[in-house]
Amino acid sequence: MESRSGRRRLRSSPQIAGAPMEVRPGRRLRSAQPQLCSPRGGGGEPDHISFLPQELLLLILTLMGCAATAARTSVLSRRWRDLWTHLRQISFNNLAPSIAAALGRVRGPPAAAAVSLLEVRIPSSIRHPGPVGTTATRLLRAAVRLEPEEIVLSFPWGVEFQDRRNLVRLPCFQRTKSLMMERLLFYCPDGEFTALRTLSISYGLGGLHSLLPRCPHLLVLSLKFVNDGFGLVQNGSISLHLPLLQELFLESSIMYADAVDIVAPLLKRLTVSFGTYKLVSSFSVSAPMLEKVSWHSWYLGDGSIVRFGRWSLQKLWLHTGNTQGQLPSSLHISASASNSSWFTSNEDNFAQEIEKHLVADFSLLELRLLKAGHVFGALVFHLLGITRISRGIQRLKIVLERSR
């Protein structure tokens, strides 16, 4: 028999593992705190998470950031089994061969609402033992039936684009409204992207010339750091004729084209930025509805491409379309002077090159001159003699900098 004093001592025993313990005669020790049941729902308290509404459970899976990780929750219980196949935002962080098959299990229209996002972002830290083109093509082919509204494809830096096995065949997504591709070698064989409104390509390679004609309703086009292997330059020229386009962003570290021709009757915003080792013969922009322009060019090499006496043209920036209270529409020209005497003056070359870039009107002319003891009056008068400049200029600002 157990003494009363013994029972009292046992009742006053310290807590174990942070939970208060109580003892009743003839019963086992148990915790006063509720126990969490096993993931499969056997024993203990109810699995409160699994009893949440499906919308909340899908939100939890979405926040995981990867469909492959979300698919692993199927082992938790029957409630979670294949729940991930109802996701409307599908993201992958790798290109395992099983991804295309897994994507085929996702429930798409008409059984459910259209997938809002299909995202494949492969970090540069992940290494792929072989070419990724075949796997990526299979994944995209499996995604066609899901009719995603937005597609994001981002490949790592380590992919060898010179290997044609990394070429991705881009199928036609007729209901996709936004398409973004980074570091992707691709081509588009057939079909039209009839719903596509926004196309963004960065560090791209491949068949832009085959894709753009298949986007008849494109409103926004962004091309960043493209090169001559990308398909942007055809027969030595960049020619963009887009009847419905409203915004165009073109950014390149080096301009490879001999001429640029842009025809966009509804274009409202134009952003162009590039460097060049040579003179581009012509820039033609036909956009009567243009409201905002940012045109930035700089000259690479030894600075002798465009000269006026000892002055060489370095940078040119045309900026318009500012709102009230900000800086006015302006043209910024940077030039530097050299002490070398072998340079010869080429006034026509200097004026003609600047006129090529005057695709919009402006009211402020800012000159930033890096001089080495030389006078600059002749250069200023030469610039003011350019018809397109003298016609609209209202303010002149000169910033003098001395070379070290």
Automatic annotation (TrEMBL):
Q: Which residues form the signal peptide?
A: none
Give every F-box domain span: 49-87
**Basic residues bias: start-end ranges:** 1-11
Question: Where is the stretch described as Disordered?
Answer: 1-44
InterPro entries named in the record: F-box-like_dom_sf (IPR036047), F-box_dom (IPR001810), FBL15-like (IPR055312), LRR_dom_sf (IPR032675)
Q: What SUPFAM superfamilies does the annotation carry?
A: F-box domain
Question: What protein is this chain from?
Answer: F-box domain-containing protein
Organism per entry: Triticum aestivum
